[in-house]
Structures are given as structure tokens and as C-alpha cells.
Description:
14 helices; Aspartate Aminotransferase, domain 2; binds pyridoxal-5'-phosphate; 37% helix
Amino acid sequence: MPSNNFQPLVDFAKHLDKQDSLQRYRKEFYLKPDIIYMDGNSLGLLSKRAERTLLECIDDWKELGIDGWLQGKHPWFYLSEKLGEMCAPLVGASPEEVIVTGSTTVNLHQLIATFYKPKGKRTKILADVLTFPSDLYALQSQLRIRGYDTETHLIRVKSRDGRFLEENEIIDAMTEEIAVMIMPTVLYRSSQIVDMKRLTAEAHKRDIIIGFDACHSVGAIPHSFSEWGVDFAYWCHYKHVNGGPGAVGGLYVNKKHFGTSPGLAGWFGSRKDKQFDMEHLFTPAESAGAYQIGTPHILSLAPLIGCLELFAEAGIETIREKSLSINQYLMDLIEYELADGGFFIGNPREDERRGGHVSLEHPEAARICKALKDNGVIPDFRSPNIIRLAPVALYSSYEDVWKVVQILKKIMSENQYKKYAKKREIIS
Ligand SMILES: *Cc1c(COP(=O)(O)O)cnc(C)c1O
């Protein structure tokens, strides 16, 4: 369904750019003049503010040495908490419910070690077949540590079409044997948003603890984790938040769980005023901070200060509005220009059900992605047949999107993709 006023000519793209209130942030990012970056859902680009706050932390190290912990411009000792506070509006939580720590996979390990408490018949973990593999590996190893068989104890909700999950089927799988469940907020391939509010309510009716992997939604769509009563969540900051390669991740724990002992304890989870007492008895913080483990990776936290300033200024609601509009424009153009090209738009079409990228399916996706790269467009390939295209609200323009589709049209009409091998690269 094209949006009401869609027009295919470049003038329309230029008109939309003029009306775009976020257009002013484009110059804050390092964009290459001849490259159109459509991969912000895998690794967001560097902004000048992120670079600045990274350099400030390096400067504090240079000038202050160990005193940077308390006296730096951004005192390192409190940086994870400060960033948690800055990140809280992106997930709809209170400041003390969020901590910026670890990585997605490490945080999942921590949260499962903490909240998976098998008892009686309730010993299983519920996930789904479309979940990111690292999450499944983590769940399997957590089951193994407790002596459970991963085949019988990790339940995976199936997908009918390999693209989407049905909330009703997820709810049907919430049996009395499930102790804890994790679900994606936005599916990494198809961009489907799962109904977090509904699943949380249904899980709680059945005494199941529920957590979400929010990697593909944080920085792209708003959340209301506290209001929905979500028990825990975890995510990365190198995708839509633009925190840089290996940026430190995020962790949310609902305040009703404060005081629950961390499954994996470490001294940075201590109450701040007790940490340096060096006692052998651990006194965990009464906040999400309790689930930190060791010394924070300051140089991978530092860019996030600048990134989260940008998000605070631009506002996640405004970002979501543009993201929906620019992704809709991309889909409209694809349908108009590439109708006979063998493409299929594999993401949900309704605004409420789609995240921050378009999932374009084609049997020749791997070769088309290579041709796109050689034409100056950076896409993202997901084996075997998905081209993910993510126009990013803070730095992509409608004219970029227009150009991408013209390039794609040329690649198809000239059969350019046929000169590439069918193999994918090691990272794609
Ligand atoms: C990117 C991503 C991850 C990656 O986890 P890391 O620990 O940061 O390597 C995990 N889950 C999902 C859904 C992702 O999109």
C-alpha cells in the first residue's frame, strides 16, 4: 500500500528532505560523499559528538591517569550509571532500571543466571526459532550448566513462514513447564515488532518471567518496558544507537526485582559506596547496576555519551516518525520501480508491526548486495535471500533512498549482479 501522496520523481524526495526536521543532524555524522550507507541496523555511523566524547575520555586518561576515575570530565567510576540514565528514555524505564554494561550476549548470560530459577515442574526456557543464534547458544549453555538437556528444555516457538512469529502461538507455548522466556522486540531479519505489552501480560498471568532482546529496537522505536512490566531486557548500542564497533551494551531490570542477587556477581555490581571497602561479603547495588560484573570498558562507553545526547535532543518519537516515513518511501519506490524484478518485501507493512529496516527478499540477494557495494551503496545481506536496507532517521535522506532504488533498478535491468560469485563474505 503506497502512502497517499507518493510520487516517484526525485523532486518529491527533495521536497520530503526539506520538510524533515531531523535533516539538521545529517551533518553531525561522518558520511562519505560517494557512498550511501544503508547498514545502520548493523553498525551505525560515527557522529562528531561520539568522536568528541571519546577523545575527551582519552584526554582525561592522558592528563589525569588514575584520577580520571573520579575527576575526569565524565568521571569513569559513574559512567555506566550515567549512561543508563541517559538511555532510560529510549526503553521507557526509570533511570535506576537501566545500566550500560557488558554486551548483548554477556548480559543475557547474566540475566538468565539471575532469573532462571527452575523449580518443580517449571524447568524449561522458552524462545523462538527466529531468535538470533548467539541468544540460543547462551540459553543452551545456561541449561547445560544446570544439568538440563537442551533438546527437551529449550522450547522454540515455530514460525509458519520463516519470517514472522504469531503472538497467539507464543502464548500457547507458555505452559506450566516454562520458568523463563526471552523474545526479540524486533526480529533481526524480517523487522517484525512483536507485541511486547501483550506477551508480558500473558507471561505474567502464567507466572513466567519474561525478557526481551532489544538489539534491533533500541534507538529505532520507543518502548515502555516499565509500564508494561517487562522483567528484563538487554541490547547492544552499535546498531541504531551508533555507539561504534563493540560499544558497551545495555541491560534493564524492572525495579520490582531489585534485590535479586545477580547470578554472576562481580565487584562493579556493588553499592558504589561499599565497592572499595574490599569486603569479602558482596553488597549489591539496589538498582540495575547490581548486574554489572567487572571494570567497565571506558573507551567503548565514551562515544555513547555523545550518541545519547543526540537522541535526547532529537527525541525518540520524532526519530520513529521519520523512520516510518522514510522506510515507507523506500517500499513505495521499490514497488513502483522494481515491480518486475523478482523482489518481495518480507517485512510487515503496518506501521505498528515494523521496525527500522526494510527486508527485501530476492533469490539472488547475495550477488545483488555485491553489485550494490560496487555501485556505492552499503546494504546488509542475511543468508540466504535477504537484503536488509536501513535508512536511518538521523542521517539518511529521502534523496539517498531515491538514489538507492535507481541504482538497484539499473543493477537489475543490466543484469550487473550476474558477474559476481554466489558466495557470501565472512562478515555479511
Ligand atoms: C546484534 C545482535 C546480537 C549480538 O550480540 P553481541 O553480544 O553484541 O555480539 C544479539 N542478538 C541480536 C538480536 C542481535 O541483533
